[in-house]
Amino acid sequence: MEAKAANGPNTERSYGVIDGPTNPMVTPLLTDLYQFTMCYAYWKAGKHNERAVFDLFFRKNPFGGEYTIFAGLEECIKFIANFKFTEEEISFIRATLPPTCEDGFYDYLRGVDCSDVEVYAISEGSVVFPKVPLMRVEGPIAVAQLLETPFVNLINYASLVATNAARHRLVAGKSKMLLEFGLRRAQGPDGGIGASKYCYIGGFDATSNVAAGRLFGIPLRGTHSHAFVSSFMSPDEIIDKSLRSCDGSRTCEDFVSLVQAWLNKIQWSRSFRGVFGETNQSELAAFTSYALAFPNNFLALVDTYDVMKSGIPNFCAVALALIDLGYKAVGIRLDSGDLAYLSCEARKFFCTIENEFGVSDFGKMSITASNDLNEETLDALNKQGHEVDAFGIGTYLVTCYAQAALGCVFKLVEINNQPRIKLSEDVSKVSIPCKKRCYRLFGREGYPLVDIMTGENELPPKLAERILCRHPFSESKRAYVVPQHVEELLKCYWSGSSGKAREELPPLKNIKERCMKQLEQMRPDHMRRLNPTPYKVSVSAKLYDFIHFLWLNEAPVGELQ
Amino acid sequence: MEAKAANGPNTERSYGVIDGPTNPMVTPLLTDLYQFTMCYAYWKAGKHNERAVFDLFFRKNPFGGEYTIFAGLEECIKFIANFKFTEEEISFIRATLPPTCEDGFYDYLRGVDCSDVEVYAISEGSVVFPKVPLMRVEGPIAVAQLLETPFVNLINYASLVATNAARHRLVAGKSKMLLEFGLRRAQGPDGGIGASKYCYIGGFDATSNVAAGRLFGIPLRGTHSHAFVSSFMSPDEIIDKSLRSCDGSRTCEDFVSLVQAWLNKIQWSRSFRGVFGETNQSELAAFTSYALAFPNNFLALVDTYDVMKSGIPNFCAVALALIDLGYKAVGIRLDSGDLAYLSCEARKFFCTIENEFGVSDFGKMSITASNDLNEETLDALNKQGHEVDAFGIGTYLVTCYAQAALGCVFKLVEINNQPRIKLSEDVSKVSIPCKKRCYRLFGREGYPLVDIMTGENELPPKLAERILCRHPFSESKRAYVVPQHVEELLKCYWSGSSGKAREELPPLKNIKERCMKQLEQMRPDHMRRLNPTPYKVSVSAKLYDFIHFLWLNEAPVGELQ
């Protein structure tokens, strides 16, 4: 029931058939106070219904890369679909604003919703680039302004962590299993839940976060911790020692002894004689207990005491006992030490078991590694050579440790059909004015070549026709492109009550698939970790001229003194 | 209503009279899957009710400092006070665990709550140090284990961001106003809400986050953005130009003209002749409109076009017009450029206005600065000299950009009255075993000298008696201390149904006060930004001996080959 409330439709605010945001704390009050003071000032000036166009975009790709994954759109749409103030919220705003504010404003707020708002956005999970609007929000200026903070909040971290996940996937390679283990180190509870969702989009296979598994249907993974191992003293404490065979045909009455017998057999075998001595009994008890509980899913954490002298031999003894009863063990997890070395040694040990005891496929036992992994350590492991099949990644992934924030902004580009430009002494901070259309142009080899922004009323770029693409601010940077394929980037995701057709919100799996497909489609030099080539973002010749006309108009003429 | 649900008591899970966690997504499913697989394995082995003691602690202070602020406790207590699985949650766990898991386990889960759990903790808002348990959790091992992930999640970010806030406060000095402006860049919605709460504890005065203001009663601040300025074209568009004087005695029918008159007066005054030319009309219109809406709270963002040539003169014209009508203007905000230089120039401008027009206190106009501020930039501003009265800090503060995670861990230290030690080849990762008591010893000058951990049954350190304090792992590091004051650190915050007395959860304001008081009490060399002196954390002689006895017992004896 509780969780239903967290995820289910927010009936009070329901608008159409779209559920509310995943986190019920995402309400119209989750915004900066200045959105309300501005809202009042617009209302007081009679300006509140003036039609404004805002672009949401970022200025620089994160993590020193040349691409970003756009994520968080679904939550934004769920938010505006249910945008409505409760009486209690209005009372709080009234108590917060100065007492001189007029009552009529609160009547106005009572009627505010997003039926007059339209949102055009790039599809979630797309590869995106600086300066190109990820979202274009059109609506009454007072309402659009109230959306700024929640939209930027919902997009910033989502896109950042999805990008981080994609970068980890690119380094790990397609064949590895990537597990998100970050909940405990995430920045707050839904830092954790958001991380699980957006890492899945960015290319992770599963999460440890049960709440995220339930909310989003993401596969879950997890076995046991060091505490589980040290909570046992010795195999003597195991009371119920019986285990039925996998096919149910017989019961081993003393699985503990079977494990012990296998441990002896390994220890005194030709291959392992003298390799290890007495293994840790607390660990052996823990592994045996875990196997009794999960005979079909036995995966053991082997580094509580000593990986090669205790963890691996104990694991193998239990695994072989399980195999005797027709089960298949899954593998091990390493959570400390030299993961490259230990994974190779573990693999050798497994292969030797396979040969020594003729147990087929024992050498293919799965090896999971965790412990402060990040892009750099994955890369280093690849260079050293390793035998890891799955990586569990936490802190560095979910907190985006290498760069903890993406700088998405929300800028006014037009009001009452008048284009607006935000100037700055720093050219990279000048915003591109006008309500725009955005296209991605693809070349002969199927790679995207350039993104181009045009004015709303310009003709779209045509296939196989030469188009001049200009850098928005640098006069000399321009290139002709003959696109083999043209994709319009901004699609209508929210049309309010206008009746305009809008895109459906796709299921999470489809968003992930889009992301994986788009990443594959990119020219590899844009994606490499070191010195990637910047992807080109441009404007049409017409828009270029218009930007510079406005710029000259707005900029004060200095006086040299 | 909606928000009531987010904050109000969670009746379904209510236990005693403590409300549920602020974020309703903090449910018993907000944990790692392995907590459930271990829980099942404990249950299957009949071990689930064995009494375990876990310590929650961190190993290293963040941000290169030598102190940390402990925060997040209230949310943990609210969580366990309402810990209970819903049927729907149990169904999800059943669907997630292998089908071989026995039904009895789910009956067991149905009955699980925290009535058998006890939590001892350092008071929230305290200054804390590595290795000392922030929380000691005692209870049935299966239940305590389920609490690990949510507790660590709730403490990690809370303590990290509170510490970050405290560091900003220490650099800014007591007299400055500190405003948390981070919602849009936070890691998800309650990254933002948590940041507001914990930055307030750590020493911030107010937040821009309306939801946090409402949930926690934190003062709110905010005026307007650049978009507000650029949404205006010229003062001609202002329709309702009248403004009643502050005392209500008269009405100025054309405030726009009054502002214009002041602007002319300034421009042609003796002091300002030739200093600035035509100011930006869009900005002037925006300021005038904002003043008409908030005549008592006029604070203007002055850097949309040109601070000294447009923003400041426009602000002064509007402020002087307001003063004519008996109002007091608040001040300006700078959001770009050289904040040290511009704040000094702005102050000079204000003082010149005060002298030129005989307007008393105009020179004391408040100056707020924002724009990517952090500890370093605050420090640099102090060194350069500046005239800023208030700092608005966002990204670097709330995302803890300088170090995005704190590494709190949750380690088993005792089970069935048997102490447990977690060994590691890395000495800093060895855990301190046993159920412990922790004390802070204060010296003659009132400063804390050292924290000491003892076994549960040792006598507490006595006033004015010599106590040997030993480094937990380094034989030669030890010192005698004669405490002038002794404070026991761990207090009972949750006693389940045991009937033991427990501490009340204090209001947020008291937590903040505790934090401010404790920060003041520290010896300054522990707190300085560069090369701070580490604060000493020690164990009693008895505990030292016991740790090393256990260590030798558990560690395998290597063989040199």
TrEMBL record, chains A, B:
Which CDD domains does this UniProt record tie to the protein?
NAPRTase_A (cd01570)
Q: What sequence ranges are listed for the domain Nicotinate phosphoribosyltransferase C-terminal?
A: 435-546
Quote the EC number: 6.3.4.21
The record's Pfam families line, in alphabetical order, gives: NAPRTase_C, NAPRTase_N
The protein's annotated catalytic reaction(s) are: 5-phospho-alpha-D-ribose 1-diphosphate + nicotinate + ATP + H2O = nicotinate beta-D-ribonucleotide + ADP + phosphate + diphosphate
Q: Which residues form the Nicotinate phosphoribosyltransferase N-terminal domain?
A: 29-156
Q: What is a biological process (GO) this protein takes part in?
A: NAD+ biosynthetic process via the salvage pathway
Q: Has the keyword Zinc been applied to this entry?
A: no
Q: Name one GO cellular component term.
A: cytosol
Q: Name the protein family.
A: Belongs to the NAPRTase family.
What role does this protein play? Catalyzes the first step in the biosynthesis of NAD from nicotinic acid, the ATP-dependent synthesis of beta-nicotinate D-ribonucleotide from nicotinate and 5-phospho-D-ribose 1-phosphate. Helps prevent cellular oxidative stress via its role in NAD biosynthesis.
Which protein, by its recorded name, is this?
Nicotinate phosphoribosyltransferase
According to its UniProt entry, this protein's organism is Vitis vinifera (Grape)
